[in-house]
């Protein structure tokens, strides 16, 4: 069911790799709610994914951009404004990557060059995205920027490795730049801390299946799906949330505020 929440709004959606991606689901929901937008991803990710298929479904232009390059990001905004006929109203930052995680390096044996790459791609890219937008005045007043995070930014999850540090920086950038952008242009900036989600990136993390099951048993509502997350993102892009900014919003079925569940207690007791 469509509510027309984004009717007439324009945006940029990053990070759609394949149909399992949260960004992919957001694009479909945004189209359904009346938005027009461009799609972007790093050139290497585009070669691995099926973004052109999504572009056809959404009648969207695809603009390759390396989110660690301010030159690429400025080109992304300029070409998006040209394609969409004006400034944008929303931006999705759905970008994250850790060479240390991919290559199985433990947290006490990090390759620091890879560590810096994790931070640059997964966190600093948000700052670059916001700074480029502000420089070009590319986002309309009362616009909305949403970045995807994870609870490991606040709590220790050993398997999440240096991505936990990157997500902590990501959330800090959302607060710091959120204050600045709200004061200057009334643009709001938020992060969503999503349940473990079986995306292509998520399932690449060691022990994902076990933790997915654990979180499902811990959360009173169960794990939030990628489709659920997309619905939540759409509300943050809409005018219904005009006064929400600088927040890290947990979208995890209650996991973040549950101490222990009855299901887990029963398992521990061998019942």
TrEMBL record:
Catalytic function, reaction form: a 2,3-saturated acyl-[ACP] + NAD(+) = a (2E)-enoyl-[ACP] + NADH + H(+)
Residues given in the record as NAD(+) binding sites: 15, 21-22, 95, 167
EC number: 1.3.1.9
Active-site residues (renumbered): 150 (proton acceptor), 160 (proton acceptor)
GO biological process per UniProt: fatty acid biosynthetic process
Keywords from the named record: Fatty acid biosynthesis, Fatty acid metabolism, Lipid biosynthesis, Lipid metabolism, NAD, Oxidoreductase
MF annotations from Gene Ontology: enoyl-[acyl-carrier-protein] reductase (NADH) activity
Organism: Persicitalea jodogahamensis
Family label: Belongs to the short-chain dehydrogenases/reductases (SDR) family. FabI subfamily.
Pathway(s): Lipid metabolism; fatty acid biosynthesis
One Pfam family it belongs to: adh_short_C2
First-tier enzyme category under EC: oxidoreductase
Protein name: Enoyl-[acyl-carrier-protein] reductase [NADH]
PANTHER family, alphabetized: ENOYL-[ACYL-CARRIER-PROTEIN] REDUCTASE, ENOYL-[ACYL-CARRIER-PROTEIN] REDUCTASE [NADH], CHLOROPLASTIC
Keyword Membrane: no
SUPFAM superfamilies in the record: NAD(P)-binding Rossmann-fold domains (SSF51735)
UniProt superkingdom: Bacteria
